[in-house]
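// run 5 | inverse folding | seed 20
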């Protein structure tokens, strides 16, 4: 099951994503081959100020969720800067009383020289939160869980920026669950989302400049949503 932070913070995040051009409306072909009326690309958080603020949203979502954790893991490649900025923000969060949060990430290919291996950063141990942008098929989460468990650590949650609240699978074989729900059920741990499709719709309804997209988003949700 996905959890999220307070509605006001969720909508603040949607506003932030719109301001940075990370969330856009129009017609976009998704990785799953669906024609979507909106698109979210966390790779467009691409300058210091935006990445710093993004880390604060990740940190607050994790604190609000009340998850007991020891460190963060960012799957290559997008998860690497996300885990880094989240760790920085968590280490300065007043609720953690100056506790420094370690993090690690993986390489796509093993390094053959120096220290070698596929892992970079702090040793994987204790309770680990996986940090990513969205969940489409759950592949990076599945790989991350295997890496964490192989190191003798325990994956306890996944923290993502946006839950699209879409049914998993393709048009010929749609699941009754979303990709997020399937990940949570498969691994027996919560998926925390900073925001979701409901929050996007709330902002559309509140902002006149986006009203033209409401019908298309609702139709898409009717077809693919949970």
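// decoded
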């Amino acid at each position: 099951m996905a959890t999220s932070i307070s509605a006001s913070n969720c909508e603040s995040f949607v506003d932030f994503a719109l301001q940075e051009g990370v969330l856009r409306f129009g017609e976009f072909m998704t990785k799953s081959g669906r024609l979507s009326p909106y698109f979210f690309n966390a790779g467009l958080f691409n300058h210091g100020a935006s990445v710093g603020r993004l880390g604060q949203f990740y940190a607050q979502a994790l604190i609000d969720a009340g998850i007991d954790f020891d460190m963060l893991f960012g799957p290559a490649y997008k998860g690497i800067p996300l885990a880094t900025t989240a760790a920085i923000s968590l280490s300065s969060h007043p609720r953690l009383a100056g506790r420094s949060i370690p993090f690690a990430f993986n390489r796509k290919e093993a390094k053959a020289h120096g220290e070698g291996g596929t892992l970079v950063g702090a040793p994987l141990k204790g309770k680990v939160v996986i940090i990513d942008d969205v969940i489409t098929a759950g592949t990076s989460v599945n790989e991350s869980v295997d890496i964490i468990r192989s190191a003798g650590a325990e994956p306890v949650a996944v923290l993502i920026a946006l839950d699209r609240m879409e049914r998993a699978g393709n048009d010929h074989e749609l699941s009754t669950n979303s990709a997020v729900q399937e990940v949570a059920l498969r691994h027996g741990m919560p998926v925390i989302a900073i925001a979701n499709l409901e929050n996007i719709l709330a902002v559309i309804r509140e902002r006149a400049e986006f009203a033209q997209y409401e019908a298309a988003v609702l139709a898409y949700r009717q077809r693919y949503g949970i």
